[in-house]
Amino acid sequence: MGKEQLGFDDLLRQAVDANNKREFNRDSAHLPGEIEAAIRYHRTQIKAFHAAVQAADLDTADKIRDEAHMMAVKVNHGEAGILADRDSPGYVIARRCAAKAGKVPLFGQEGRFRIGVGGVTVLIAMDGMFGLGGPLPGFAAHAVDFDPPFFSETGYRSFLQLQNVPPEPGLTTAEYVTIAIANHIASMKGKLVPILPQYRPKETK
Predict the structure, then answer these.
(1) What's the pTM value of the predicted model, to 2 decimals?
(2) For labelling alongside 80, which of 11, 31, 150, 190 has CA 20 to 30 A away?
(3) Is 3 left (phi over 0), alpha (psi -120 to 50) or beta?
């Protein structure tokens, strides 16, 4: 049986895909394609990203973030699933470049640390460049003590797409997180709420 003849739409799709691949190869030529080299390169990207955010230059920060994504795709052999599972390039690179536990990370760097805001101690899980959101990274806020009131009745809140934190020169990661949470508490008119029993660890119910 002979090979089935491709229709015009199929030929056009192949041509578009080939053009996209050539464009990707050209744009990513300066980026490493092996995981260990990508990890080393990402550490320089984090420093450049942090400097751009602290200069309130979000356009440059966005470009660095896009470059980081492109590098992860290149490591992933040109495939888009850079966050498909914990062994995918996006997760591996971010994990290997994360701040030490308890240390406040740079902008663009993953990290977990505690901070006090509005009389509440909060565990912050900061996203790096591969997380959701724009140039200003998102983060998750977790209650540390489940007995006092919190700014969420679940003891958890995700902060993404933070338009309520205008970038200003010199803004630190800790200040950014503090402002975002303080603004949220202000939106609750400063009234914290009890964490519901079903969301508390068993020993604190």
Answers:
(1) 0.86
(2) 11
(3) beta
Beta strands (DSSP E) in 88-187 are 111-117, 120-126, 139-143, 156-159
Residues 6+ apart with CB under 8 A from 5: none
Residue 193 DSSP one-character state: B
| Share of residues in the chain with pLDDT > 90 (%) | 72
What backbone phi and psi angles, to 5 degrees, belong to 120? -115, 135
Q: For residue 156, what are its two tokens?
A: 């958890």
pLDDT at 1: 43
Q: What percent of the chain clears pLDDT 70, i.e. is strictly above it?
A: 89
What's residue 204's pLDDT?
A: 46
Question: Tokens 């983060």 correspond to what residue?
Answer: 139
The answer to whether 42 and 93 have CB atoms below 8 angstroms apart is yes
- d(CA 163, CA 161) in angstroms, rounded, equals 6
Structure-block tokens of residue 87: 């062994």
DSSP, res 181: H
Compute, in degrees rounded to 10, the torsion defined by CA atoms 186, 187, 189, 195.
Answer: -90
